[in-house]
Design brief:
The structure holds 2 protein chains of 2 kinds.
Chain A: E1 19-20, E2 22-24, E3 27-29, E4 36-41, E5 46-52, H1 56-74, H2 79-95, H3 97-108, H4 112-133, E6 151-155, H5 161-175, E7 178-182, H6 189-200, E8 208-210, H7 215-223, E9 229-233, H8 236-246, E10 252-256, E11 262-265, H9 271-283, E12 295-299, H10 303-314, H11 335-350, E13 354-356, E14 372-375, H12 382-385, E15 392-398, H13 401-409, E16 416-420, H14 424-433, E17 438-441, E18 460-461, H15 468-471
Parallel strand pairs in A: 1-5, 6-7, 6-9, 7-8, 9-10, 11-12, 11-16, 12-15, 14-15, 16-17
Antiparallel strand pairs in A: 2-3, 4-5, 10-18, 13-14
Helix pairs in contact in A: 1-7, 2-4, 2-5, 3-4, 4-5, 9-10
Chain B: H1 3-14, H2 19-27, H3 34-44, H4 51-64, E1 65-68, H5 76-87, E2 101-104, H6 109-116, E3 122-126, H7 137-149, E4 154-158, H8 161-165, H9 169-183, E5 187-191, H10 194-197, H11 200-212, E6 217-219, H12 231-248, E7 253-255, H13 263-276, E8 289-291, H14 294-307
Parallel strand pairs in B: 1-2, 1-8, 2-3, 3-4, 4-5, 5-6, 6-7
Helix pairs in contact in B: 3-12, 4-13, 4-14, 5-6, 7-9, 11-12, 12-13
Classes of the chains: A alpha/beta, B alpha/beta.
């Protein structure tokens, strides 16, 4: 046997403070009327830091700071000068990438190989990409002189804390807006390190404000009359509440919500690569991915063969310490999320689907869930309809391409889909018919700052990334 | 073994009887997506193998080396020196294992055989008009027999790439079958020369063809064309031997050759073996490295792990 010795990334590269204030108007301040909450390492349940909980008064202070910065500094600043700041931020992110990756893994539970090789490089790439747009907005296709909106209220989820921050902040700033961002309550630490990076980059005070807190803080921010734009990534339930709250106001909204994506494998698919794509589709980031390929649709004639390969491959997945460089699957982000995954998985078993996990030892402390697949799932099962947001795959079968499209589209969501086939014409035929914002062909979970990302139906509206991502931050 | 598996197994042995059956079978294998295969190989390359795992991997890699010299300038003196090194790669450390085999041209086999006799180090010889394979079949078979008679217990043959690329699979198949027969008890490694096959689909088909025809090993390259072993090519071949064993029950070995020069690279291959086909292949009987300069890097890294310091190249023998 070839046992890999532990290969832990050193956590000494990052200096976590015992407590953090709110980042308002260029400096860290104590909350005026809020309390504090603790951010824990989900892999060990160890408390990492105490973080300020922003109240309505703090939100108001942050929005005023953002407004002042917008009117006096950032709005009037020529695009080429805004670009300089964004390029500078991007470079600092690259320079401090190890620190950011370790902190992200500590706070979120994701394996270091993902924060190191996926999250942080994409974060830097987003800032570089939108920095390039800052002085070229007249050529983005939104008229000769598109104007920013003003102050953007941005609320982001815990699954890709720093990457979602980049998706929100980079286009907003490039277009000339200022922002107040609320990170998720379980993963605020990289956003606070990003605040330090803004200071290091000499970004003018008030352009980026970070107000930590939970749902109430987010609500106060979204409902604040001083914001011009609301951008949210998170659950469909909260997204609907936000849509209701801003209805009838002048606020422009983009929502990036849940998904229940179909990953469709045809009988002529390259099997070994399709299996990699299935694994990447559902087990990447512990399945905490809104566009995860959580429904596997396999053509019946190859179902047994694909499942056999999939199970063999799943037995190779290494679950454990997120900071170990050889870990494939880290910790579930929170006790609440773990409970939700367990509840839906139990419902899957109770409704008659067959459950399978590879033999794997889970650590005693922290929040863990073994990679799991359910076979014999039908469209009527809850696990085929509801977003689990965990490492749980529901496997269904189909007989014809038309049936695959029908099943794939038979969901209230429409964020992403995957197609696996050697036949190019079928890829195009399917992509035309799938009601999903992103369709991947012979790959899955590929992200690039130049490519727009967003959903159909209850997966939200608006696009992030690419030229399209500017539209949500411009007065067009 | 179930009844269906038995019948599937006998079916495969019939394939070589007809060109049509071979073609239908080989073209019916699942395709390989180039981007996906390269991505998977790259991913496996990011495993971090440290401390005890690294020491274990280095010793295993040393035992898997087919220490090779295939030059026009080879002389009896040169290959004897190489064979001596194969027996005791690190003269300063008796705990260092010997390599898997020495690989030379047929004319050099007798000289190596004298040195290796009774040592447990195998003696491999290239044959069948290596490296091009462009000679009449009778010449190739005579080449093979001569090498075996001179003492080689492993034969590294080259497939007829011209016939393969032209779609004359049965011709390739028949040549491998004939060479296997000429080998007698010697193990047959079938060199696909993947750099000339160009696509991963071809690599998979050629691997299956070699296995169906009775090859004991599939080997990537001669080392004589610009593109030799690469991680994705080796990955595709490992998947093929894995699937072949599942279909037939027979285990076939894999030998990447050419271009593997550092311990780091060798360890990446071992990780790939471990996570693609599993521990059954983590043995010199089932996985080899065709290499020459790799050995000294393995020895340097081995010494570094033991002593904590790097020694210069002069502390290791040239050949």
């Amino acid at each position: 046997m070839f046992e890999y010795a532990p290969a832990p990334e050193s956590r000494s590269v990052v200096d976590i403070k015992p407590s953090y204030g709110l980042f308002i108007d260029g400096e860290f301040v104590d909350p005026t009327d809020g309390g504090t909450f603790k951010s824990v390492n989900p892999a060990s349940e160890e408390v990492l830091a105490e973080v300020a909980e922003g109240g309505a008064g703090d939100v108001d202070r942050a929005v005023r700071a953002a407004r002042a910065a917008y009117e006096k500094v950032w709005g009037p600043m020529p695009g080429r000068d805004r670009a300089k700041y964004l390029f500078r931020i991007a470079r600092i992110i690259q320079e401090r990438s190890r620190e950011l990756a370790v902190l992200e893994s500590l706070d979120n539970g994701k394996p270091i190989k993902e924060s190191r090789d996926v999250d942080v490089p994409l974060v830097a790439a987003h800032f570089f990409y939108y920095a390039g747009w800052a002085d070229k907005l007249p050529y983005a296709g939104f008229g000769p002189d598109p104007k920013p909106l003003g102050v953007a209220a941005q609320v982001i989820p815990w699954n890709f804390p720093l990457l979602m921050l980049a998706w929100k902040i980079a286009p907003a700033l490039a277009a000339g807006n200022t922002v107040v961002l609320k990170p998720a309550e379980t993963t605020p630490l990289t956003a606070l390190l990003f605040a330090e990076i803004c200071q290091q980059a000499d970004l003018p005070a008030g352009v980026v404000n970070i107000v930590t807190g939970a749902g109430d803080t987010g609500r106060a921010l979204v409902e604040h009359p001083g914001v011009d734009k609301v951008a949210f990534t998170g659950s469909t339930e909260v997204g609907k509440a936000i849509a209701r709250a801003v209805a009838g106001t002048r606020k422009k909204v983009t929502l990036e919500l849940g998904g229940k994506a179909a990953n469709i494998v045809f009988d002529d698919a390259p099997v070994d690569q399709a299996v990699e794509g299935i694994v990447n589709g559902i087990f990447f980031n512990q399945g905490h991915v809104c566009c995860a390929g959580s429904r596997l649709l396999i053509q019946e004639s190859v179902a047994d063969r694909v499942l056999e390969s999939l199970k063999r491959r799943m037995a190779q997945l290494r679950v454990g310490d997120p900071l170990d460089k050889n870990t494939d699957i880290g910790a579930i982000n929170s006790a609440a999320q773990l409970a939700r995954i367990k509840e839906l998985s139990d419902a899957g078993s109770a409704e008659g689907a067959e459950r399978w996990s590879p033999p794997c030892e889970l650590p005693d402390r922290g929040f863990w869930f073994a990679p799991t697949i359910f076979t014999g799932v039908t469209q009527a099962h809850r696990i085929a309809r509801e977003e689990i947001f965990g490492p749980v795959l529901s496997v269904l079968t189909f007989r014809t391409p038309a049936e695959a499209v029908e099943k794939a589209n038979n969901t209230p969501y429409g964020l992403s889909a995957g197609i696996w086939t050697d036949k190019g014409s079928r890829i195009l035929w399917m992509a035309d018919r799938l009601r999903a914002g992103v369709v991947w062909a012979n790959t899955f979970n590929k992200f690039d700052p130049t490519s727009p990302f967003g959903g159909y139906k209850e997966s939200g509206y608006g696009r992030e990334g690419g030229r399209h991502g500017l539209e949500g931050y411009l007065n067009v | 073994m179930t009844a269906t598996a038995t019948s599937a197994r006998s079916d495969l042995s019939e394939l070589g009887r007809s060109e049509t059956a071979l073609r239908t079978f080989l073209h019916g294998l699942p395709g390989v997506d180039q981007v996906g295969a390269e991505q998977r190989a790259a991913q496996l390359g990011t495993r971090s193998i440290k401390t005890t795992a690294k020491a274990q991997a280095i010793d295993l890699a040393i035992r898997m080396v087919d220490l090779t010299t295939l030059e026009g300038a080879d002389t009896p003196g040169k290959v004897r020196a190489l064979a001596a090194k194969a027996l005791r790669p690190d003269p300063a450390d008796p705990s260092c294992p010997h390599v898997g085999a020495v690989c030379v041209y047929p004319s050099m086999v007798p000289h190596v055989a004298e040195v290796l006799r009774g040592s447990g180090v195998h003696l491999a010889s290239v044959a069948t008009a290596f490296p091009s394979g462009q000679a009449p079949l009778e010449v190739k078979l005579a080449d093979t027999r001569a090498a075996v008679e001179a003492g080689a217990d492993e034969i590294d043959m080259v497939i007829n790439r011209g016939a393969f690329l032209a779609g004359r699979y049965k011709e390739v198949y028949d040549e491998i079958v004939a060479t296997k027969e000429a080998c007698g008890d010697a193990h047959l490694k079938v060199i696909l020369e993947t750099g000339e096959l160009a696509t991963y689909d071809n690599v998979r088909r050629a691997s299956w063809l070699a296995m169906l025809a009775g090859g004991d090993f599939v080997k990537t390259s001669t080392g004589k064309v610009p593109v030799a072993a690469t991680p994705p090519v080796t990955l595709v071949m490992l998947e093929a031997v894995r699937d072949f064993r599942a279909a037939t029950g027979r285990q076939v070995g894999v030998k990447p050759a050419g271009g593997i020069r550092t311990s780091k690279d060798a360890i990446k291959y071992l990780v790939m073996v471990n996570e693609t086909v599993g521990p059954d292949w983590l043995d010199p009987d089932w996985f080899r490295f065709g290499a020459s300069t790799l050995l000294n890097d393995l020895l340097m890294q081995r010494t570094k792990l033991k002593t904590g310091v790097y020694s210069g190249p002069d502390y290791f023998t040239l050949d």
